[in-house]
């Protein structure tokens, strides 16, 4: 799953980006509110984590514009403002949840999971194919009744393939899904992770069509 993080504090933003990636989320980090609209129009996100105290366009204005554009994306607001009035203002502007700074990272993770579950029925989010069950909310993979630990990029690549089971996914689309903005894309990354997944789940779990892409059989 992909998260858009909007936080102008460099130290906090860097820490949150690293922590969320460790939890196997793909994360794109913006430091101001102006590019948010363009980012949401070009990239499908599962969650927005939005700081209110942004330079230039304030976070509340970003949030109100998001809802005016009919975006239903879940939004977790981060703010140093802790009064009831501030929280009411944020929720009335379209926030789904509210977290006051400073906060414990484990609470952030819990709120992220809760918001992702809230998007729809949890059971309906399970991805199933070729004996693999992947839960994108709780970040779990089960194969033949056993839990399987994957790296963040292995998980992200497998999730994309399972979401498109039966259809070929291009190498470019897979690279886009497993790399965040600004990361250098290595030329053989997809091949390396496909090879690792085949070793874990069997050589037939991922099919290749030269010049087209990769797919998990439906």
Task: Explain what this protein looks like in three dimensions.
With 218 residues, the protein is of the alpha/beta class. It has two domains: 2-118, 3-Layer(aba) Sandwich (Rossmann fold), CATH 3.40.50; 124-215, Winged helix-like DNA-binding domain superfamily/Winged helix DNA-binding domain (Arc Repressor Mutant, subunit A, Orthogonal Bundle). Helix content is 39%, strand content 20%. It has eight helices and eleven strands. It has helices spanning 10-22, 36-42, 59-68, 84-92, 105-118, 152-163, 171-178, 189-201, and strands at 2-6, 26-30, 47-51, 75-79, 97-100, 127-129, 132-135, 140-143, 146-147, 207-209, 213-215. It has a five-stranded parallel beta sheet with strand order 2-1-3-4-5, sandwiched between helices. A four-stranded antiparallel beta sheet has the order 6-7-8-9, with helices on one face. Strand 1, helix 1 and strand 2 form a beta-alpha-beta unit. Helix 6 (152-163) packs across helix 7 and helix 6 (152-163) crosses helix 8 (189-201). The longest helix has 14 residues, at 105-118. It is elongated and about 55 Å long.
Query: Total number of β-strand segments?
Result: 11
Instruction: Return the structural class.
Output: alpha/beta
What's the multimeric state? Answer: single chain
Low-confidence stretches: none
**Morphology call:** elongated
CATH class of the largest domain: Alpha Beta
Strand order of the largest sheet: 2-1-3-4-5
Beta fraction: 15-25%
The CA-CA distance between the termini, in Å, is 21 Å
* Number of separate domains: 2
CATH architecture of the largest domain: 3-Layer(aba) Sandwich
Number of helices: 8
Order of H and E elements: EHEHEHEHEHEEEEHHHEE
Superfamily at the CATH H level of the largest domain?
A: Response regulator
**Biggest beta-sheet profile:** 5 strands, parallel
- Could you estimate the helical fraction of the residues in percent? 25-40%
Radius of gyration: 18 Å
């Amino acid at each position: 799953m992909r998260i858009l993080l909007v936080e102008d504090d460099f130290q906090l933003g860097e820490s949150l980006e690293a922590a969320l990636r460790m939890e196997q989320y793909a994360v794109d980090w913006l430091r101001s509110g102006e590019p948010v609209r363009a980012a949401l129009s070009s990239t499908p996100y599962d969650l927005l984590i939005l700081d209110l105290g942004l330079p230039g366009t304030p976070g509340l204005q970003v949030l109100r514009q998001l809802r005016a554009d009919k975006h239903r994306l879940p939004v977790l607001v981060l703010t140093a403002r802790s009064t009831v009035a501030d929280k009411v203002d944020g929720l009335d502007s379209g926030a789904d949840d509210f977290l006051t700074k400073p906060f414990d990272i484990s609470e952030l993770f819990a709120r992220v999971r809760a918001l992702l579950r809230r998007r729809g029925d949890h059971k309906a989010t399970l991805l199933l194919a070729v004996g693999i069950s992947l839960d994108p909310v709780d970040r779990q993979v089960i194969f033949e009744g056993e839990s399987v630990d994957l790296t963040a990029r292995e998980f992200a690549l497998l999730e994309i393939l399972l979401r498109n089971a039966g259809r070929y996914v291009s190498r470019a689309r897979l690279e886009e899904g497993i790399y965040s903005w600004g990361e250098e894309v290595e030329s053989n990354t997809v091949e390396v992770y496909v090879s690792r997944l085949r070793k874990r789940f069997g050589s037939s779990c991922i099919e290749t069509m030269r010049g087209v892409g990769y797919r998990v059989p439906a």
